[in-house]
TrEMBL record:
<comment type="pathway">
    <text>Amino-acid biosynthesis; L-lysine biosynthesis via DAP pathway; DL-2,6-diaminopimelate from LL-2,6-diaminopimelate: step 1/1.</text>
</comment>
<feature type="binding site">
    <location>
        <position position="170"/>
    </location>
    <ligand>
        <name>substrate</name>
    </ligand>
</feature>
<dbReference type="GO" id="GO:0005829">
    <property type="term" value="C:cytosol"/>
</dbReference>
<comment type="function">
    <text>Catalyzes the stereoinversion of LL-2,6-diaminopimelate (L,L-DAP) to meso-diaminopimelate (meso-DAP), a precursor of L-lysine and an essential component of the bacterial peptidoglycan.</text>
</comment>
<comment type="similarity">
    <text>Belongs to the diaminopimelate epimerase family.</text>
</comment>
<protein>
    <recommendedName>
        <fullName>Diaminopimelate epimerase</fullName>
        <ecNumber>5.1.1.7</ecNumber>
    </recommendedName>
</protein>
<feature type="active site" description="Proton donor">
    <location>
        <position position="74"/>
    </location>
</feature>
<dbReference type="GO" id="GO:0009089">
    <property type="term" value="P:lysine biosynthetic process via diaminopimelate"/>
</dbReference>
<dbReference type="InterPro" id="IPR001653">
    <property type="entry name" value="DAP_epimerase_DapF"/>
</dbReference>
<keyword id="KW-0413">Isomerase</keyword>
<keyword id="KW-0457">Lysine biosynthesis</keyword>
<feature type="site" description="Could be important to modulate the pK values of the two catalytic cysteine residues">
    <location>
        <position position="172"/>
    </location>
</feature>
<feature type="binding site">
    <location>
        <begin position="75"/>
        <end position="76"/>
    </location>
    <ligand>
        <name>substrate</name>
    </ligand>
</feature>
<feature type="active site" description="Proton acceptor">
    <location>
        <position position="230"/>
    </location>
</feature>
<feature type="binding site">
    <location>
        <begin position="221"/>
        <end position="222"/>
    </location>
    <ligand>
        <name>substrate</name>
    </ligand>
</feature>
<keyword id="KW-0963">Cytoplasm</keyword>
<feature type="binding site">
    <location>
        <position position="65"/>
    </location>
    <ligand>
        <name>substrate</name>
    </ligand>
</feature>
């Protein structure tokens, strides 16, 4: 089976072109192929597939975290799927329509001097910020004055975290802090991901504002742990900041692996712009 290693600002996945290859058990494959010591290495596995027959789209993305769990969406991944589909000659449409677990998304892209996709703007659709739909279980948290913001408590240590909940098709909790680098993400991340308030677990983001249009964020991803970037997460961060009155509707987000631009426009849709990069190709198993 041929694979391609790609990343969106350091959020790296092993990609398989399902127009050419068949993957029997993606949940199992994700765990072994994404292993950074015994496999190719990555934050998970992403498949480029034909769209379902009853869906109007150019192709389909399925994404699996490194623990084998499937997520509805991956913002950095969908930009790379767009690049893979275009650069391999599978889809040439621009804009391109990609079926995901969060619906059919529209992506517009620019090409580099060699005619390969370099930067992609994704219409991420309308964010969801009704707590029950994220989903979160309010009975396990303390309410605040904002309907989408709750206080979470660690029962063992008594630590409190005020988090704003937004779904971009997948669930995100954003915690605003004065210094993002002071957070012990390795300790706190898994405890928040698996908090009883989150029936489907949770992607966790700590965010520091520099100004109303510039933030730095660090992420603990559901099913993958610490990653260098999260595109759905950055989108949720932008929306959470607007809901909490902390930032403008258009922001620049600095993530450990690079930058994304997020724009929550008048049409109610969130637009994310960033790069997509191919690193190498190979055969699995060798
Ligand atoms: N890194 C991704 C999100 C991947 C899925 C996430 N871990 C989940 O389980 O929802 C992104 O760029 O959005």
């Amino acid at each position: 089976m041929q694979f391609t290693k790609m990343h969106g600002i350091g959020n790296d996945y092993v990609y398989v072109n399902g127009f050419e290859e068949t993957v029997e058990q993606p949940e199992e494959l994700a765990q072994v192929i994404a292993d950074r010591h015994f496999g190719v290495g990555g934050d998970g596995l992403i498949l480029l597939l034909p769209a379902d027959k009853d869906v109007e789209a150019d192709c389909r993305m399925r994404m699996f975290n490194s623990d084998g769990s499937e997520s509805e969406m991956c913002g950095n991944g969908v930009r790379c799927v767009c690049k893979l589909a275009h650069d391999r000659g599978v889809v040439k449409a621009n804009p391109m329509k990609i079926q995901t677990g969060a619906g059919v998304l529209t992506l517009a892209y620019t090409l580099d001097d060699e005619g390969m996709v370099s930067e992609v703007t994704v219409d991420m659709g309308e964010p969801i910020y009704v707590a029950e739909q994220v989903p979160v279980l309010p009975k396990h948290m303390k309410e605040t004055d904002e309907p989408h913001t709750f206080v979470l408590e660690f029962l063992d240590t008594g630590e409190l975290f005020t988090a704003t909940m937004v779904s971009m098709g997948n669930p995100h909790a954003t915690i605003f802090v004065p210094d993002v680098h002071a957070i012990d993400l390795e300790r706190i991340g898994p405890k928040l991901e698996n908090h009883p308030a989150f029936p489907n677990r949770m992607n966790i983001h700590f965010v520091q504002h520099h100004s109303p249009d510039e933030v730095t964020m660090r992420t603990w991803e559901r099913g993958s742990g610490i990653t260098l970037a999260c595109g759905t997460g950055a989108s949720a961060v932008c929306v959470s900041g607007v809901l909490d009155g902390r930032n403008d509707k258009k922001i620049l987000a600095h993530l450990p692996g690079g930058d994304l631009t997020l724009d929550w426009r008048e049409d109610g849709h969130l637009y994310m712009t960033g790069t997509a990069t191919e690193v190498f190709r190979g055969d699995w198993p060798e």
